[in-house]
Design a protein that fits this description.
This protein has one helix at 53-60, and strands spanning 2-3, 15-17, 43-45, 71-76, 82-86, 89-94, 100-105, 111-116, 122-127, 130-132, 139-141, 145-150, 156-161, 166-170, 176-180, 187-191, 197-202, 214-216, 221-225, 235-240, 249-255, 264-266, 270-274, 277-286, 295-304, 310-316, 320-325, 329-334, 338-343, 349-354, 356-357, 360-361, 364-370, 375-380, 385-389. It is mainly β. Among the domains are: 2-60, no CATH class; 257-396, YVTN repeat-like/Quinoprotein amine dehydrogenase (Methylamine Dehydrogenase, Chain H, 7 Propeller). Strands 18, 22, 23, 24, 25 and 26 form a 6-stranded mixed β-sheet that branches. The chain has a 4-stranded antiparallel β-sheet with strand order 4-5-6-7, with no helix packed on it. Strands 8-9-12-13 form a 4-stranded antiparallel β-sheet, with no helix packed on it. The longest helix has 8 residues, at 53-60.
Length: 396
């Protein structure tokens, strides 16, 4: 292994090599790597980056090694397969046994979000970074492209280019709204359940740099932005697709902040729609007498639909990684590795658990829950996908 450089006065140009042998690294005991280099001395090395390291690792593992990074998004299909996005992949598919079915190598900085269509035959994927145009050789903003990928073999089924990097809103019926996140007033593109263009809806220029609202299991095309009817404060809006009532329209539902009199300022993040309930979560900020005394953390709020009234609010100092759940329980996953199970109706904490892989702590960054399979799937910062079986909730 190549350790981090220690000599800052040397301009971080010198590193240290350390050779440690173990028969089974998954069960290696604590303290095997000796920082005091008593059992295995460190040797000074000027090699801080080896361009052949990927080829070397692939050779040593007989082709089994794959470069991994954070698992940015996940979705669980009805047959148990898991789709995942990440920095080094455009999309990958894992079967129920945990074996990799297929993977699309990343072009640029990989993929960001994945949304399976209702029949699970394909999935929409967004991207990050740039790609080089084959014809001109110039770099093209890849983040403006959305592709629909076949879940059978990873083949590209459809491709949509947007004027700027988009966020999407999706419904369980298969409606998809692609909203450009640029600062200009650009129309959202609506795709019907048959993946055909249905309408363009004009939206106000985006005013926030916050990540887009992501609502799972939604019956409506929901998004957050300002200004709302009461001024500059962000509101939760619904895009109504065209139909018997007429053309597509945008309707403001209720403010993002459920209690304007409260000192707590919420940012929007993941959410889940459960019947007449919207459970949303995000980063929170509460101003203090001084900047140092300000409080940041995470909120989870249960809001009644359609008026947005808060039934309960849960607050914690732990940084949020993701949220999902059903009508009985909501799973809140934190970057600390902790998972809390909240009662959907009351907000009561039913269970707390710390995620570990082979006994070692992990850093979750994404989560997806499949209620009919009672599976909570968690993606980590180092590229792991943890498939967790959750106990059913008993009682009324």
């Amino acid at each position: 292994m190549l350790l981090s450089p220690e000599d800052k006065d040397g301009g971080f140009r010198t590193g240290f090599e350390l050779a440690v042998a173990a028969d089974d690294w998954l069960s290696a005991p604590a303290g095997l790597v000796d920082p005091d280099h008593v059992r295995h001395p460190m040797v000074q090395s000027g090699l801080l980056y080896d361009p052949q390291v990927e080829d070397t690792l692939a050779r040593l593992t007989e082709g089994r090694w794959r470069r991994r990074a954070e698992v940015r998004d996940l979705t669980v299909l009805a047959d148990g397969r898991v789709l995942a996005t990440g920095r080094h992949t455009d999309l990958e598919c894992w079967d129920v046994s945990g074996a990799l079915s297929w993977a699309l190598p990343a072009s640029g900085e990989g993929s960001v979000q994945v949304e399976a269509v209702p029949d699970d035959t394909s999935a929409w994927v967004t991207y990050r970074g740039f790609r080089r145009d084959d014809g001109t050789g110039r770099l093209v903003d890849r983040a403006t492209t959305v592709r629909r990928i076949s879940t059978a073999d990873g083949g590209v089924v459809d491709c949509v280019d947007m004027p700027s990097a988009p966020a999407w809103s999706a419904t369980g019926e298969g409606w998809l709204a692609l909203r450009p996140l640029g600062r200009d007033a650009e129309a959202a593109l609506l795709l019907d359940p048959a993946h055909q263009e249905a309408a363009h809806v004009g939206l106000a220029p985006r005013r926030s740099n916050s990540p887009a609202l992501r609502v799972r299991h939604s019956t409506r095309l929901l998004y957050v932005d300002g200004p709302g009817p009461d001024g500059d404060a962000p509101w939760i809006h619904a895009i109504e697709p065209p139909g018997a009532h007429g053309p597509a329209t945008v309707r403001a539902l209720f403010p993002l902040h459920w209690d304007p009199a409260s000192a707590l300022q919420p940012w929007f993040g993941p959410a889940v729609e459960l019947g007449d309930t919207l459970v949303q979560a995000g980063r929170s900020y509460e101003r203090g007498p001084t900047y140092a005394q300000a409080r940041t953390g995470t909120y989870v709020v249960n809001r009644r639909l359609p008026d947005g009234a808060a039934r309960w609010v849960y607050e914690t100092d732990q940084p949020l990684a993701g949220l999902d759940g059903d009508e009985r329980k909501v799973y809140v996953v934190y970057l600390t590795g902790n998972v809390e199970t909240l009662d959907t109706a009351t907000g009561e904490v039913r269970d707390r658990h710390t995620l570990r892989a082979h006994g070692h702590p992990v850093t979750p960054v994404s989560v997806a829950f499949r209620a009919d399979q009672q599976r909570l799937v968690v993606g980590t910062a180092d590229g792991r996908i943890l498939d967790c079986t959750v106990p059913g909730v008993t009682g009324p």
